[in-house]
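Module 6 notes. Inverse folding takes a fixed backbone as the condition and produces residue identities as the prediction. Think of it as a translation problem where the source language is geometry and the target language is the twenty amino acids. Below is one complete input and output pair. Work through it position by position during the lab.
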């Protein structure tokens, strides 16, 4: 078994740190940064590093694409003709529909792609931020297609469990993108909007912690997140519209002095949050 991880940033670097011993595989890394490859080899988390995927993809049984979605698509398009029969490709992209559409028609017969997305991360990126505990207890989303083989699905699922993920959840690309627009992308939109206000500069002595909590993810990788927003723009714009409706309802109740209406909104939200907490702490 040969496993190749393409892109040794936070996610890819954390993956190779945990993949040692998986199916007794050789672990190879691909990255354009030679210093990253040197560090990964020195750390013993990869057997060898390559700056050009063409050197190794033809020998790989499992290829894990850990670049930005656009670069993942480019990598598949440029290297598809080199892939061996029965190879399995997966990714860690935060959008699924965009990637599937981008690689459609490029994979040769006998090669399978299964979308994946580990629900884990940190505020800082790059190989030096990677850790062997990043995925511990996390969920891992996979989006297999109807024509994916049980063998390929089992391989990706086993990989996700091996690196420490507690729940491997099967969903459709459409549901993935709709839900991630709410649970992840909208959260970054809200945090950025809160920080896109000059009042933030005067707020240090006026917050007991809620502002820090609500703006945690505003320390953002602008290149990556602008790409993710645009690649999932329809779902994200739907979530933003829903959020605006809620804000408008709160604003209207407040402006008109509708105490009962305001209490109902707050109570309903609190009840939903309590139910969510009881389900997520299991």
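Target side of the pair, the amino acids:
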């Amino acid at each position: 078994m040969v496993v190749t991880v393409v892109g040794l940033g936070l996610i890819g670097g954390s993956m190779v740190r945990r993949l040692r011993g998986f199916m007794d595989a050789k672990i190879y890394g691909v990255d354009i940064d030679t210093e990253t490859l040197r560090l990964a080899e020195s750390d013993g988390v990869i057997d060898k590093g390559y700056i050009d995927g063409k050197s190794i993809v033809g020998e790989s049984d499992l290829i894990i694409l850990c670049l930005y979605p656009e670069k993942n698509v480019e990598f598949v398009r440029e290297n598809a003709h080199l892939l061996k029969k029965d190879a399995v490709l997966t990714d860690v992209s935060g959008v699924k529909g965009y990637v599937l559409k981008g690689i459609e028609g490029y994979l040769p017969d006998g090669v399978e792609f299964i979308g994946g997305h580990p629900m884990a991360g940190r505020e800082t990126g790059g190989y030096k931020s990677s850790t062997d505990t990043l995925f511990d207890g996390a969920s891992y989303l996979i989006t297999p297609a109807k024509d994916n083989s049980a063998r390929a699905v089992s391989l990706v699922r086993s990989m996700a469990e091996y690196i420490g993920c507690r729940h491997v959840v099967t969903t459709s690309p459409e549901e993935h993108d709709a839900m991630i627009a709410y649970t992840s992308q909208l959260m970054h939109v809200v945090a950025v909007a809160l920080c896109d206000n000059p009042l933030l500069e005067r707020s240090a002595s006026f917050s007991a912690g809620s502002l820090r909590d609500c703006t945690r993810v505003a320390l953002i990788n602008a290149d990556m997140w602008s790409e993710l927003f645009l690649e999932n723009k329809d779902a994200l714009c739907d979530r933003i519209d829903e959020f605006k409706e809620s804000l408008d309802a709160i604003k209207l109740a407040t402006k008109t002095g509708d105490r009962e209406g305001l209490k109902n909104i707050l109570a309903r939200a609190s009840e939903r949050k309590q139910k969510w907490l009881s389900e997520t702490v299991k």
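Reference fact for the lab report: The chain has two domains: 2-170, 175-280.
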